[in-house]
Inverse folding.
């Protein structure tokens, strides 16, 4: 299946969705709130429609799981081998506050592992992408771009801009390095920073959903890094009965 998917097509879909998002971003827009109190804008809906329609047209046999689509029961999902996992706008709070740190996330999952991912940041005009066995890239440059050979001397940790929990900060405070630098970033860009090598570790001891992480997770894996569960150090997996991720660490 993977060899039939041209990642350039997926990048083009993400870029098209990003263009539509930016048209709305540059204007005044209203914000609604879903049942779980998470924000929703017209841009989320427009981006979701572009991505879902394009994927259905190109790959009609691959089901889609999206934050903005109707929820699909686990009894159906558990039988999927391959599926698309998408977040039309990851970092809606960043979108609303207009700080530019939001992304379009598209990933392909096989069984429980992300094997292809595209993360496009339309405001920054940066695109990260990876396909299993072919490496990870940012704007055409192979990742990682930087390797920290002495983390005990200096360690760069990235944390959430809008969702920094006490537990995450407590974990960061235990890290052992002579020179510890803590930076904040929105959306899945945090995982991409570790893949790129401009951050060494991203602890997330707070809630996320599978569509928040899956695309960037594929990029992390192909850059030679890992995403592990905080509790037991096992790899973070997907298509679980609950789509809520456990706490995790990217390193």
């Amino acid at each position: 299946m993977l060899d039939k998917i041209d990642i350039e097509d997926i990048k083009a879909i993400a870029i098209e969705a990003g263009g539509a998002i930016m048209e709305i971003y540059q204007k005044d827009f209203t914000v609604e709130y879903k049942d779980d109190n998470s924000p929703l804008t017209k841009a989320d809906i427009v981006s979701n429609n572009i991505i879902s329609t394009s994927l259905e047209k190109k790959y009609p046999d691959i089901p889609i799981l999206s934050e903005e689509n109707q929820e699909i029961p686990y009894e159906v999902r558990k039988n999927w081998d391959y599926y698309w996992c998408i977040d039309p706008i990851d970092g809606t709070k960043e979108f609303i506050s207009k700080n530019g740190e939001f992304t379009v996330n598209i990933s392909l999952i096989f069984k429980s592992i992300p094997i292809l991912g595209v993360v496009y940041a339309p405001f920054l005009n940066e695109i990260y992408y990876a396909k299993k066995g072919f490496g990870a890239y940012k704007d055409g440059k192979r990742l990682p771009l930087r390797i920290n050979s002495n983390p005990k001397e200096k360690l760069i940790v990235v944390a959430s801009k809008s969702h920094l929990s006490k537990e995450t900060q407590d974990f960061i405070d235990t890290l052992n390095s002579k020179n510890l630098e803590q930076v904040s970033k929105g959306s899945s860009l945090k995982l991409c920073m570790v893949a790129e090598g401009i951050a060494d570790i991203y602890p997330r001891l707070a809630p996320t959903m599978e569509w928040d992480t899956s695309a960037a997770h594929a990029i992390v894996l192909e850059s030679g890094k890992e995403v592990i569960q905080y509790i037991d150090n096992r790899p973070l997996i997907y298509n679980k009965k609950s789509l809520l991720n456990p706490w995790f660490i990217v390193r």
In short: The mean pLDDT is 95. Residues 158 and 190 are 6 Å apart (CA to CA). The helical segments are 7-25, 42-58, 74-77, 92-97, 166-173, 189-196, 210-222.
